[in-house]
Fold Aminopyrimidine aminohydrolase.
Amino acid sequence: MPFEPPAARTQHRLSERLRDGILPLWQRQIEHPFVIALGNGTLPRANFQFYILQDALFLDELTKTFAYATTKTTDHEEMEQFGKFLLNTLLVEADLHHRYGERFGLSPTDMMTTPMAPTTYAYTRHLLTIAAFGTLPELLTAILPCAWIYAEVGRHLIGTMPPATDHPYQDWLLTYASPDFDAVGTWIRERLDQRAFFLNDHEEARLHEIFLTSTRYEWLFWDMAWKLEEWP
Ligand SMILES: Cc1ncc(CO)c(N)n1
């Protein structure tokens, strides 16, 4: 980055202010019955299957937000990182989904033709709207909960109960508990925190609103798969 924020502001990082502002909702992610059941392996297969199908659709749209991100910066290191995130989302996570798809007898066509459930649709519209029309700090804020919450959930679940080798969702747990995945959230937080110094109060208030909305959708995503959400 060509600029350095003054030391005084770095003591109160924006990313921490964003999360501290909504701590109870943050905490409720790891307490959601879907997450608990995913961690201890009791999650019914139907719910996991529903989740995996919806998540494959979600990740396709998340991939596109990284493409938009490259258009909002001239910093080569950032452009390179967004390109890597784009490819990783497409390849690493898609691989996880395809392995689960195979295990559950879901073909790539099944995975492609499943319609988005209401929450997947709403969450991805939220992300894409900000990706298309927002600033880079707004985009980083919108995608931060998805990287940060999954790393925390993965770490929490592996930490409280290391999965046995026959745990049905072991691959999922190991993917999100990995240091590689954690690094995604860390990088996004650092970039956002560096830019925070240049934001006025109004702009920062907007980021709090975006962060809250994305965090709410993260909770709703678990809830959608727990309840097998349907359109009316
Ligand atoms: C809904 C959702 N949020 C975050 C992640 C992590 O990439 C994911 N795979 N799915």
